[in-house]
Design goal:
Layout (H helix, E strand, L loop, with lengths): L2 H10 L1 H18 L11 H26 L8 H16 L17 H24 L5 H23 L4 E3 L3 H8 L1 E2 L9 H27 L7 H23 L4 E2 H19 L1 H11 L1 H6 L4 H27 L1 E3 L6 H11 L11 H20 L4 H26 L1
Antiparallel strand pairs: 1-4, 2-3
Length: about 400
């Protein structure tokens, strides 16, 4: 492996290098803190990093699919979390005694409420996708309507059912499904199922890397060298084992980690291994050329926003479970966090380029920066400036890289 190939590899994985550097920087800044809770290296903070940013990983996946179609975005997802959360609160909160003219909440079971919330999300996705794909309303206008209307509607629903504009007391099975832990053990005691899952995951990633290399060589395609594949699998395995080791001392496997991992793996497969996944890239690269070559561009646009609404429904339930309630400000700026994760992770602002793994790296980088700055007690206004500069740097890097490639 010569200097040129090493340089090319570093450029290709620039955000991953930045993520590692930022994480190590905050580890050094917090390592010698007298308070264990202020150490970013601690198992509890590692688990909290995943719990706090689960919504970014899930929404970022959906936002990436929208951006692939030509740099399109969904401005309504955060406000829709508020509206759907209010509806979910009405469905699940226990029925109370009559309170004047206000009707009671329904107190439905968790399975019924989950099905109804997903159905409402899909109904919104169908409407939004139809308006964008078939009525040809520009995506930013169609979703801006939701951005403006949904939070107001959600707040009004909450005001009708609660004097405090919040609803709580959701079923325990609902909270455990999205914000519980599997194989729970006491804090700081190793959780063997979690540790074994980490070993199995590292082994699976190593097998996938070498199996992909074998298939590409069998077809006569360009493939990684054995050394390059070994380095990739080694770095991936170390990262997985490090994460799962920390989590094994945090009390159990967070169920939200399984949700995030499942969604990331499914959409990684869709975008890299299926025909419809490749169509998203083709449409984003050149929509007219894609149409002329037989790609149903309307269907792709429709599916992008239907999918976004579905993932927003999942995020709503994750956030409701984590907060144990729903309120008027829930979901605020969620759309901006998802867009930032995509852009920082290398998803092109003009469409046609980007990966789920890149988005995950971008979301993790933003999460590490947020937590690290909070642990070192950086002023909240300075934190906003830093996040803005990180986003600007990612966009500049993307533009300069494209110019050099041309």
């Amino acid at each position: 492996m010569n200097i040129k190939s090493i340089t090319a590899s570093l450029k290709k994985n620039a955000m991953l290098v930045v993520l590692i550097g930022v994480y190590l920087g905050f580890v050094l800044l917090t390592l010698f803190d007298a308070t264990p809770d202020n150490n970013i290296f601690s198992p509890a903070n590692t688990a909290e990093l995943i719990n706090q940013n689960a919504y970014v990983f899930i929404l970022g996946t959906g936002m990436m699919m929208c951006m692939l179609t030509g740099g399109n975005i969904d401005l309504s997802c955060g406000a829709f979390v508020c509206l759907l959360g209010a509806i979910g609160g009405v469905l699940m909160s226990p029925a109370s005694a009559p309170n004047g003219p206000n009707p009671d909440t329904l107190g439905l079971s968790a399975p019924v409420s989950i099905i109804l919330m997903i159905a409402i999300g899909l109904l919104y996705g169908v409407l939004l996708g139809y308006l964008i794909a078939y009525v040809h309303i520009p995506p930013w206008i169609a979703t801006l309507v939701g951005y403006l209307a949904f939070r107001g509607l959600g707040t009004q629903i909450l005001a009708v059912y609660s004097k405090t504009q919040s609803l709580a007391n959701f079923p325990t099975e609902f909270r455990d499904l999205f914000y519980g832990k599997l194989f729970t053990t006491p804090q700081d005691v190793i959780n063997w199922p979690c540790f074994i899952l980490g070993i199995a995951s590292a082994a699976a990633v190593t097998w996938m890397i070498f199996n992909t290399r074998r298939k590409r060589l069998a077809k006569g395609y360009e493939a990684d060298t054995v050394r390059s594949a070994a380095i990739k699998s080694g770095i991936s395995s170390v990262a997985i084992l490090y994460l799962m080791t920390l989590l094994s001392f945090s009390g159990g496997i967070p169920t939200v980690l399984l949700w995030v991992a499942g969604i990331v793996l499914i959409y990684s497969f869709i975008t890299s291994k299926t025909t419809i996944g490749r169509h998203f890239y083709v449409v984003g690269g050149n929509k007219e050329a894609a149409r002329l070559s037989g790609v149903n561009t309307r269907r792709i646009m429709f599916l992008a926003y239907l999918n976004m609404a579905f993932l927003t429904s999942i995020v709503t339930m994750v956030v409701m479970s984590r907060n144990t309630n729903t309120y008027a400000d829930v979901g605020k700026n969620f759309e901006m966090d998802a867009i930032s994760a995509c852009v920082v992770g290398g998803v092109s602002a003009s469409g046609g380029a980007g990966t789920v793994l890149g988005m995950v790296i971008g979301a993790t980088l933003i999460g590490v920066i947020n937590m690290g700055m909070s642990l070192v007690k950086l002023d909240i206004d300075i934190q906003k400036v830093v996040k803005g500069l990180v986003l600007l740097g990612a966009v500049v890097f993307d533009i300069l890289s494209k110019k050099k490639n041309k």
